Amino acid sequence: MNNFEFRHHNDYVIASINLDKATFQEAIEFKSMIDDEIDKGYHNIVISLNDCDFLDSAFVGVLVVIWKKVKIKGGSLKLVKQGKFNHSVFHLTGAIEIFEKYDSVVEALASSPTTA
């Protein structure tokens, strides 16, 4: 299984993080791959963290950078983690406040008027 899987649904890129731990090294690779998708015109992104038990601050930093990029382009970034994000690095860094958070990819996609 790849560390990162990408699929498309309407105007969304759905990225799945298939890692137990996402750290600095993976953050660099993921940012490069997402940047390619943004360059292709995908400005609405759903990132599934369901399989990821740990994100370090570098990976969270990359998510913030991606969020800023898509916001400037009129897009959105939605994070998916079943059971929400309690006791995660998102809370420790305060980044939890900026992201749209959902329990499932289906729920995240349904929240958009363009895919409803």
Structural commentary:
By secondary structure, this protein is of the alpha/beta class. It has a single domain (4-110), classed as Transcription Regulator spoIIAA. The chain is 37% helix and 25% strand. The chain contains 4 helices and 7 strands; from the N terminus they run βββαββαβαβα. It has helices at 24-39, 57-72, 89-93, 105-110; strands spanning 4-9, 12-17, 21-22, 44-48, 54-55, 76-80, 100-102. Strands 1-2-4-6-7 form a 5-stranded mixed beta sheet. Strands 3-5 form a two-stranded parallel sheet. Strand 1 and strand 2 (12-17) form a beta hairpin. The longest helix is centred in the N-terminal third of the chain and has 16 residues, at 24-39. The N and C termini lie far apart (30 Å). The mean pLDDT is 86.
